[in-house]
Design brief:
CATH topology of the domain at 2-139: Nucleoside Triphosphate Pyrophosphohydrolase
Helix content: 25-40%
CATH class of the domain at 2-139: Alpha Beta
Oligomer: single chain
CATH superfamily of the domain at 2-139: Nucleoside Triphosphate Pyrophosphohydrolase
Strand content: 15-25%
Order of helices and strands: EEEEHEEEEHHHHHH
Length: about 270
């Protein structure tokens, strides 16, 4: 079975999709532009080339086919069954003149009209299936699937914010394990300096006390200070006699002994 490629040119007339059909050369039947595959061209681009030559239209062709069907291709003295694969062509320009304009007619039809005019039953089936898909794709908002199903709350892909449950959140630049990225960690030298500053000062204080350094903390210097000396009584101002000290028992005995020695007769 031989393979052929064909283009289905479409254009929107407001909200109504329309289809461009051409007539065949011999029997003048309404068909779509079609031909044989071309060397160095993909099947989609070969179909677009046939649309330019047979119908005089240019546009964007979809790389994937919209369907295929078998039909009987007629030749002057015979007929052969072929498989026709169809690619959708969104028409952007309709040329006033084209290569086969003297051999064919072209005309725009609605889907209903095209299904009435199309000669091949396989083409009619493809048109019947394609129309609702085109209308659904055009009605769907841009960036959403044709079934209208966007991301819904509670489903994967939803962008609805979750309520705050009071748990701490990780920083936006945290790594997979919740830690900061390597770029946020200080260099090794800075880490060593920070660790040295954070060490206790007890070792330094011990060394200062052992060496007798006066720069030791005040508490250590006070523990090594000499005991305080007795306070010296203040001197009496001139011309004033110092008060006599009160005599104790020992003083009384001493005074009595001195008095007895003075009055005793000499032997």
């Amino acid at each position: 079975m031989r393979q052929q490629v064909g283009a289905l040119p479409i254009r929107w007339n407001g909200d109504e999709p329309t289809i461009l059909l051409v007539t065949s050369r011999e029997t003048r039947r309404w068909i779509i532009p079609k031909g044989w595959p071309m060397r160095n061209l993909s099947n989609a681009k070969a179909a677009a080339r046939e649309a330019l030559e047979e119908a005089g239209v240019r546009g964007r062709v979809q790389p994937k086919p919209i369907g295929s069907y078998r039909y009987l291709k007629r030749f002057p003295d015979t007929a052969e069954e072929c498989k026709l694969t169809i690619y959708l062509l969104e028409v952007e320009a309709e040329l006033p003149t084209f290569e086969e304009m003297d051999e064919r007619r072209r005309a725009w039809f609605t889907f209903a009209e095209a299904m009435d005019q199309a000669d091949d039953a396989g083409l009619r089936d493809i048109l019947r299936d394609l129309e609702p898909r085109l209308r659904s794709a055009r009605a769907a908002p841009s960036g959403e699937p044709e079934d209208g199903g966007g991301a819904k709350p509670g489903r994967p892909g939803s962008r609805k914010a979750k309520p705050d449950d009071g748990r701490p959140t990780e920083p936006a630049d945290a790594g997979p394990d919740g830690t900061a990225p390597a770029a946020a960690v200080a260099d090794p030298a800075s880490a060593v300096r920070a660790a040295a500053k954070a060490k206790p000062k007890k070792d330094k204080q011990k060394r200062l006390r052992a060496a007798g350094d006066d720069t030791a903390p005040r508490k250590d210097r006070a523990s090594r200070a000499k005991p305080p000396e007795a306070a010296t009584p203040a001197a009496e101002p001139p011309g004033r006699k110092a008060p006599k000290a009160k005599a104790g028992p020992a003083d009384a005995h001493r005074a009595a002994a001195e008095a007895a020695m003075k009055v005793a007769p000499a032997k």
